[in-house]
Amino acid sequence: MKKFLAIIKVFWQKSLTYRFTVLAYRVGEIGETLALILMWSAIYNGQKTIGALTLPEMITYILIGNFFNAIIRNFLSGLIARDIKEGRLSIFLIKPMRYFDYILIQEIGRISFVTIMSMFSAALVIIFFINTFIWNFDIAYFSVIIVMVTLAFVSELLIAYLVGLIAFWTDEVDGIYSTIDRIKKFFSGGYFPISLLPVTFVQISFFLPFAYSFFVPAQLYLKKIDLSVGLKGLLVQIIWIVALYGIINTVWTRGLKKYEGIGI
Amino acid sequence: MVDIEAKNLSRTFEYYRKQRGLSGWLKFLFYREKLHAEAVKDISFSIDSGELVGFLGPNGAGKTTTLKMLSGILHPTSGQVKVLGHIPAQREKEYQKKFALIMGQKNQLVQDLPAMETFIVNKEIYEIPDQEFEENLDELANIFDIHNILDIQVRKLSLGQRMRCELVAALLHKPKILFLDEPTIGLDVVAQKNIRDFIKKYNQEKKTTIILTSHYMEDIRELCQRVIIINLGKIIYDGKLDDLIRKYAPYKLLKVIFNGNGVKLEEVEKFGEIDEFHPYACTIKTKRNEAKDTAIALLSSDLPVDDIIIDEVDVNDVIRQVFNS
Question: Which of A43, A228, B34, B110 is most enclosed, with most CB atoms within 10 A?
Answer without folding.
Answer: B110
